Amino acid sequence: MIDLNRTLGLVKGGLFDSEQTWRSYLPEAGCWRTTAFLLTGPLIIVAAVAAYILGFLGSDTSFLGSFRPTIISTIVSIVMMVITAGVVAFVISALAGAFGGKNNFAFGLAATTFAFIPGYVGKAVTWLPWIGFLLSLGLFVYAFILLWKVIPIYLDVPSDRRVGHYILSLLATFVVLFILSMTLGRLAMPLMGDHGFADMTDEGGFNSSSNSGFLGGITRQVELMDEAEKDKFSPPKDGRLSEKQVNEYIRVMQRTEELQLEKSNQFKALADKADNKEEMSLSDLSKMMRGVTEIAGLHTLEIEVVKSAGGNWAEHRWVHDILRAAWIQKDINEEGKHNYQLFQDQEAVLLKYVAQ
């Protein structure tokens, strides 16, 4: 059942062509043993071993300080990751059944393993000097965003119940993992030294005050994406943009750019504080985790600018697509000539947005 070439292909696909890879694996997802041997197990082992090796290279300059991982702590880490993978798959699949989807552990394990491939990569690079922790945190957040996308494909949660299922799954998972960290983690702590899994919970890993910002940020992103997906827009039959639509598009993009810069600067200030080895409070850690969720991508700030002004996300994306087509095709026909003229009128402002 172990096929390293297949495993590498699935990991690569999960990172760079996720949805296509998820769908191609669906016929095999019904057997949890296949997923465990082909994907979950190798990811856990490689992530733990890579973290162990990098720990010797970067522990003196990492966010985690001078602690070096040991063989015992690595073994304990593998055990804890196995337990975590099982808990997450069980909770999400069980709640999927309660919300009208599939209550199927095998599909839940496949879905969560694929979603958390970036998280396993993040685990592996945690000990990289200076940037390891922040890179790990960013990949971890990205995994939660992939989880939102993969659940409907593997667990068939109805679209009108996705948000409720997702939020409750996150909360339930964190509660269960917190309880485990306070029991199994504390039992393992003597083997790991003073920096065991349970100790991390006391310092903010699963602490409720620090995770409130983290969970709050992810929850808000999910709610925004859900609201945006519900928007409908019927383009005009002639396919022509209006000047008002173009001006509103520019306003949204400029305001989004301002917010992204503001959030990035706030996050950079906290990151600089950590790099300078200044004392980090739980409040600082909470802000840092929330900041990562806010700059993690998927244009949630852009969505928020549109929706908070009473706009229509589907219309906004249509305007973007038409402006991009006008930039590429220019005045290919009468319809294109009209839209290209609107684009040309404000090309200096529009180009950087439509060329992305």
Could you explain the architecture of this structure?
It contains 16 helices and no strands. By secondary structure, the protein is mainly α. It folds into 2 domains: 4-206, no CATH class; 230-356, no CATH class. Residues 61-65 and 191-213 have low confidence and may be disordered.
Please render the helix and strand layout as text:
Elements: H1 4-16, H2 18-25, H3 32-58, H4 71-98, H5 105-115, H6 117-125, H7 132-155, H8 162-192, H9 197-203, H10 208-230, H11 243-275, H12 282-294, H13 300-308, H14 313-329, H15 334-345, H16 347-354
Helix content: over 70%
Largest sheet: none
Rg calc: 23 Å
Output the helix-strand order: HHHHHHHHHHHHHHHH
Number of domain modules: 2
- Tally of helical segments: 16
Low-confidence stretches: 61-65, 191-213
Q: What amount of the residues lies in strands?
A: under 5%
